[in-house]
Amino acid sequence: MIVKDAVCPFCGCLCDDIEVEVEGDRVVAVTNACELGTTKFMGEKRLKNPIQRVGDEWKDITYDEAIRYAADMLLSAERPLLYGWSGTHGEAQCVGVHMAELIHGVIDNTSSVCHGPSILAIQEVGHPGCTLGVVKNRADLVIYWGSNPIDAHPRHLSRYTRYAEGFFLDNAFRDRKVIVVDVRKTETANIADEFVQVRPGGDYAILSALRAIVQGKTETIPRTVAGVTREQLIRVANLCKSAKFGAVYFGLGLTMTPGKYKNIRNAIELVSELNRHTKFTISAMRGHYNVYGSNEVNTWMTGYPFGIDFSRGIAFYNPGETTAVDILARKECDAALIVGSDPAAHFPRRCLEHLAEIPIVQLDPYPNATTAFCNVQIPVAVTGIDAEGTAYRMDGVPIRTRRVLWSDYLSDEEVLSRMYALMQEAQQP
Amino acid sequence: MKVTLAMKPAAKGFIPIEAESIVPKNFLSGTDLLVWRGNRELRLDEVFSVSVEGEADRAEGVEVVLSGETFRLKRVGEYMDGGKITVLGDIGMHCGNFMTAGTIEIHGNADGWLGREMAGGAIVCRGDVADYCASGYRGGRKGMKGGTVEVFGRAGDFLAENLADGTVIVHGDAGDMPGAEMRGGTLIVHGDCSRPAANMKGGSCYVYGTAREMIPTFKKIGPVQHDGRTLIQFAGDLANRGKGNLFVKNYEYLD
Q1: A221 — contact with chain B (CB < 8 Å)?
Q2: Phi, psi (5° rounding) for residue B41?
Q3: Taking the domains of chain B in order of start, what are their residue ranges?
Q4: Global confidence as pTM
Q5: CB neighbours of residue B226 within 10 Å
């Protein structure tokens, strides 16, 4: 069987033109997807049933037992942490937020270690953004800043920028200029018209300098700024001002380097400044296929996009205090539920030391680095493969992922709903 | 009146305790107060050994002394409007949030957001302070609006972010981006720091040591005398059409 127009559940591009060939309960071929998406569709060895750690060994348990264990663990905790959420669909994220409120826990998603700073900056100065389709059809200048789409979002270039046709561009490949700003010459830099190599940690200074140059205050800028000559900065500023429609796409090279959200704020303010001369937009290169969705779901349900602390019964938000890395590094939580992410592979060592000390339940189809820290792991269906649900693309467009094959695994939403029902039962007087 | 709160040894490790009820004014009507440990509400005497000496009829006559492992105690002195709080050890986050009057003295170190959005009164920290000392809340346009914060140790990153008014003095070094987005008030760093007064709009920022990674969009005015020191005056941040003043002893660009 061939499933057409499947949605790829890998990166924030959420490509919706994938063809998947299925034989029985197995994907045998994938067309149109990049290497990353193909690998995800083809799958790997999944966990067969829930497992529980007993002493030094793993014991197979039933879904009922595993769900009961998780509910009891979270109900008895004084400061439970519910982390992850980017690798699952919106419907499951909704249940997660309800659960956090019911048990007075902290719910955080992976954006606190990726584009959380972008959101902090947007909260300070707003977001002059647009959808990917607008960029594809109109942009004659694209800037990739601290992001490397050839490796991380391979089809971003072919579907929306460098290699895409544009409705309002006669010859998109010739007319569209690409500028890459990075600390090293990446694969994407090789296909750029202009490459700006910044000294590590120098993005903020470059952005400030560009803002001043766009305002015509060139004389105060030193001869070089963070490894970039004043001449090149003036050339880049002129390229931006003379573009008809410019789009900036930034990645973790900007959000996770010194200054963090201040870098993004400066980039947004540069874009605002450029909008006095031409049309310019800026957007984040979101990583997980539904990390944007977890911000959306959290925001419409609680008012805040990530790092929400319900311990007092009301939502409190303060990244740096209520975010997973900070809570774990300070040893502030006493139980954790991990859904659709792998903190043990990404968090600092100090956080892992605390993860090793507290009870953890993980919902994930595959054994991963976090499995080593778990008391119980519950395998679930993979959204976009054997489960379906809503995901948000990196530009905020919701796209419903499709099921391409049927399996006996429960989806994240089903497992979490059953867990939530047990908690509601226990909380009733 | 002197209220002594000695923290009892904790059964459950490091779970933070939110104690915004620890404000001098509240002790005028007794010690029957509540605090939160994680998602559990506890009586003050479940967490502290409480003792009271003397009497008072106004907040100004109350001194609260905190001892023990107070480093995980958050929001002490929130909305404080008079009296004194003395912390003998370290204090947790958000100490002195929104305070308008009175004095907080910390003998140890203070965690993040010390004196967040304070409007008046004085905070003295004898040790180091973590990030966001004397700053604002996320997304807010104004940070500290009045009063004084004096730190004798070092300060972390984003010291006095969005400073709108009041005075912040750090005797040691400060971290990255002190005085970011400041729009008024005075910030003085006796030691070194990096990227001071980024995107400033107004106010005055003094660095008596070396300003590393200077923001390139400050216009050099020239040397000035200040408090017996020769400092170099800059105006900026030009990128923000700012009209602030930055004074530094030495500076270096990331070139």
Answers
A1: yes
A2: -90, 130
A3: 109-251
A4: 0.95
A5: 15
